[in-house]
Amino acid sequence: MTTAILPRGFSSTAVYIDQISRVNQQYFAHTAAFSKQLAIDELAAIWAECRTPNWDGYDAYPVQESTRNYAYAVIQALPLGFPLPSVGAEPDGHLTLDWYRDSHWTISISVSPDGKLYYAALLGNSDPRGSEPFLGEIPKRLLSLIQEVALAKN
What we know:
Strand 4 and strand 5 (129-133) form a beta hairpin. It is built from 4 helices and 5 strands; from the N terminus they run αααβββββα. By secondary structure, it is an alpha+beta fold. The radius of gyration is 16 Å and the shape is globular. It has one domain (36-151).
């Protein structure tokens, strides 16, 4: 499962930076500390289980290949060193990416077949929610929420 990295520009300098970035990402992706393979494997297993209609026995919609591809791209877009999400499926055919610290600190991102990211979080006493388009990079708002849940010190 691979996705293309969107170019950040078309000048010779931008093309060079994109090439160097790809090489560095491939190198770090193979290190134990920065590998995203566990989340990718979980995504593949969930998709294999949930890509047919009625996968849950209660008329769930199948998870489409485009949904899997967007979820894969979101995982790949996580900055190096970020915690990996748990992957799940929803009856509406969306895939979920979840980060959990405890029952009051969690965030769930629902990935749709058209690349829209719906999110809901519990951050102590607040519960931000909303949606953002996925355009090749994880929106800053979502990265901030993930950091608040998964990287905060207790």
